[in-house]
Amino acid sequence: MRKYNFCSGPAALPEAVLRRAQEELLDWGGRGCSVMEVSHRSADFVAVAERAEQDLRDLLSIPDNYKVLFLQGGATGQFSAVPWNLLGAGSRKIDIIHSGQWARKAIAEAGRYGEVNLVASAEDRNFSYAPGPDAWQQSADAAYFHYVPNETIGGVEFNYVPEVSCPLVADMSSSILSRPVDVEKFGVIFAGAQKNIGPSGIAVAIVREDLLERALPDIPRSLHWKIAADAGSMDNTPPTFAWYLSGLVFQWLKEQGGVEAMAELSRRKSQLLYDFIDRSDFYSNPVARDSRSRMNIPFVLADARLDKQFLRESEAAGLLNLPGHRSVGGMRASLYNAVPVEAVEALVDFMADFEARNG
Predict the structure, then answer these.
(1) Which of 70, 143, 67, 72 has the alpha carbon at shortest distance from 110?
(2) Is 8 flagged in the annotation as binding?
(3) Active site residue 254
(4) 266, 172: one domain
(5) Which residue among 67, 93, 195, 269 is the active-site one?
(6) Would the annotation count 194 as a binding residue?
(7) Global confidence as pTM
């Protein structure tokens, strides 16, 4: 019996995808071997890669003048790749909104290669809100503007897309494919796979073609977007199994109705949990209401001494991976695309019962 998995990443995968992969594990497409055992340059695997790219293009309506790259190193690798690839055209200034832990990591890495300007910071309220544009302090000549639309750890989500004059870079690791996106507003979108795309081990970067010529001259080959684009993301041996599984997830998403259907599902799931928390005096959510994430919902108990009991009993009830991040504590439920409504209903029922017994 599968349990309900609220892990923030690596996260739940669609059961239908796992079952198909299980069926094909030893005999993929009648070839008598696994997809992990064929050359990445074979016609069979190239077809997998090409379909995965096209399905992702269809899901996000990605224009033809954007390259879709399947890369290694996760989103953390892109913290280095972004400045390496975008700081070679003159200005070394980088505008970044400091919205939480993942913005902090991007700031630290970008600062190794350029001059970081904090456009705004939510640190004054413990990263419990997304700073609005009225608080910005932008550079006049930034090479690019970086932000994190959804902060996984703090459960903060931007309810707007920044309008800037330089290329806009978005780390969409925990929100990609959960709603429609106007890709043309962005210069670069990147995401680690292990939340809404597929298993860990692969990352996606969507890069506007004109930005491929801005790399620093001494950029490491493995981080160079243009080399990856020219090689079809196969300059070196890619993580083929993760790429294959990501492709199956894209197919599953299209079968569910695409990102429009996922947006409605995300709204329903998050509203169900937020509504329960807001009606309770036993639980609370620390995030400003207009900045609440649909993907990651942190919550705390009125009596923190009950945290360990809550986590122990919830796991026994089949509700997995609810501890908050080690840096903030409390609880966190991640409601990515593969988490069904039934999982959230089961969580709310458990929370109500726990409150009745301990409130």
Answers:
(1) 143
(2) yes
(3) no
(4) no
(5) 195
(6) yes
(7) 0.97
